[in-house]
Design brief:
311 residues; SMP-30/Gluconolactonase/LRE-like region domain-containing protein; Methylamine Dehydrogenase, Chain H; WD40/YVTN_repeat-like_dom_sf; Vgb; 26 strands; 50% strand; four-stranded antiparallel beta sheet; 2 domains; mainly beta
């Protein structure tokens, strides 16, 4: 429909959070503040198969947010449970099943504060069913970003970034893949390629300059690509239709691209004033209507970058 949506992630009693809608055709934005509890820190977004936009509400308010792009209205889907503390993290859509997946961390402050569990939540937009899959069998850290591979496996990262976790829906089993102890790895954002490899941004590698990493499930191998990153570290990551890896950097002044066949990384100056650039710690997404436009958004602006040469 020609709109870009972004979350303004304010929480802990500060200014009210909002959803911002950009009309690409007119370059106008508007803030949507009604329809959700503003005290919940607003997280990432995903486009569902039903063409609704879903986002996570974390920290204070444990809901899945839902935007109807046709009407612009926002509603909330409560997550059932009796725990007194739940942290929601990343969110993604399984395009095959239509399920919305989120990462979750729960514990009961009052009755069982030591039993911290983490895992994932699935939401079925067609039926309204919510299922929670939690485990305490590995490091009970806050789970972060999440992605789905072509086989339907769910992958997510510990917030500490020390490893990847795979959840197999058919068997409801978790598998943990810790990063090598001799590697400086702090995984931030995730995505998958058509071969089933997990690509991620690494904010610690090479004296904190960062790297782009690849995890190969068949071998369990972590591979780091850092040569060419001069203004990092990387933040979010997307894969174009031609397989090229694109990422933003915390400085906000550069986009990076990686050729997965050669490992070659190129940084591209965006030539946007630092106070206006949202190619920093904000999230990236690909245009739904054009294969060569990358969008970035965060608290202050929405930014687009058109890739002229994809060869």
């Amino acid at each position: 429909m020609g709109y870009i949506y972004g979350t303004f992630p304010v929480f802990n009693g500060g200014e009210e959070g909002a959803i911002y809608q950009l009309n690409v055709a007119t370059s106008t934005t508007r803030a949507i503040t009604s329809g959700f509890t503003p005290q919940g820190e607003l997280g990432k977004m995903t486009l569902g198969n039903d063409q609704m936009i879903y986002f996570s509400e974390r920290n204070i308010n444990y809901h899945i947010g839902k935007i109807d792009p046709t009407s612009g209205s926002i509603s909330e889907i409560p997550i059932p449970g009796t725990v007194t503390s739940r942290m929601l993290g990343g969110i993604t859509t399984d395009k095959t099943t239509g399920l919305i997946w989120l990462t979750s961390r729960v514990y009961d402050i009052k009755t069982d504060p030591e039993n911290v569990r983490q895992g994932i939540i699935s939401y079925n937009p067609a039926t309204g069913e919510i299922s929670e899959y939690l485990t305490a069998s590995f490091s009970p850290d806050n789970p972060g970003d999440i992605t789905v591979d072509n086989a339907g496996n769910i992958w997510f990262v510990e917030l500490s970034g020390a490893g990847l976790i795979r959840f197999t829906p058919n068997t409801q089993e978790f598998s943990y893949y810790p990063a090598p102890l001799n590697e400086d790895i702090n995984i931030n954002a995730l995505t998958t390629d058509t071969d089933g490899n997990i690509w991620y941004t690494n904010t610690y590698y090479n004296n904190n300059a960062g790297a782009i990493g690849k995890f190969t499930p068949e071998t369990g191998e972590y591979t780091q690509y850092s040569e060419g990153i001069l203004n990092g570290p990387p933040s979010d990551i997307v894969i174009m239709n031609n397989g090229a890896i694109w990422f933003n950097e915390h400085s906000g002044q550069y986009l990076g691209t990686l050729d997965p066949d050669t490992g070659y990384i190129e940084e591209i100056a965006v030539n946007i004033p630092a106070e206006q650039s949202l190619f920093g710690q904000g999230d990236l997404c690909l245009s739904q209507t054009s294969s060569n436009i990358i969008w970035g958004c965060s608290a202050y602006a929405i930014t687009s970058y058109e890739i002229i040469d994809q060869q």
